[in-house]
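Example protein as discussed:

>
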Amino acid sequence: MATSEVSAYYRVYVWELPVRLYHWVNFVCVLALIGTGYLIGAPLSVEYADEAYQQYWFGTVRMVHFVAAFVFFFNFLVRIYWGFVGNRYARWTNFLPHTREQIAEIVETLRVDILQTHPPRFVSIGHNALAGFIYFLSFLVFLFQAVTGFALYSSMSASALPRFFTWTVPLMGGDFAVRQWHHAGMWFFVVFAIIHVYLVFYHDYVEGRGTTSSMVGGWKFEKKDQIVG
């Protein structure tokens, strides 16, 4: 019994090293950006006996935010590039549902994730169609956060990259409007992170294919009779 169950599975190398590095660098950057961004939007009232210039804690918070933003941006550019040159599971075609099978998988995955009535009938090796589409939408929010963040930073920086986005401020109605939209984008990532972590562990449990560990080692375990592609 145990032998037949083991032999029904085989390993597939799904996530290449650049994809895994992108994921974990992005994870660290998003945590840093959310934490420091919240403090920038709602600063704590910290009382010290020393003068403010002797503490500079808020300046440190802003510096961490800016450094994380630059790393986040260039890490994102690498992922865009890898979407064209990576393996079949990293390609952009996985993020935009364009076939009847992908649409059906989206509907089926919504039923499984929300109603939890049965295990998924569609088993994609890489991202399922719903996850891929949600990730594509998150990439658009990534871009929006980068543009608005650098636009806000441009008023206090002489660097070429932030100054490239100065046009965003008048287009969106001024610094206050840009800051409000940028702050709203932060809450998108808070909600996204909670749902993402929950669904990763949930699908790991119901499918038993090493979904969680695949983003560390790159390998998934697949049943020969359930492969979709």
The domain at 13-223 is CATH 1.20.950.20 (Fumarate Reductase Cytochrome B subunit).
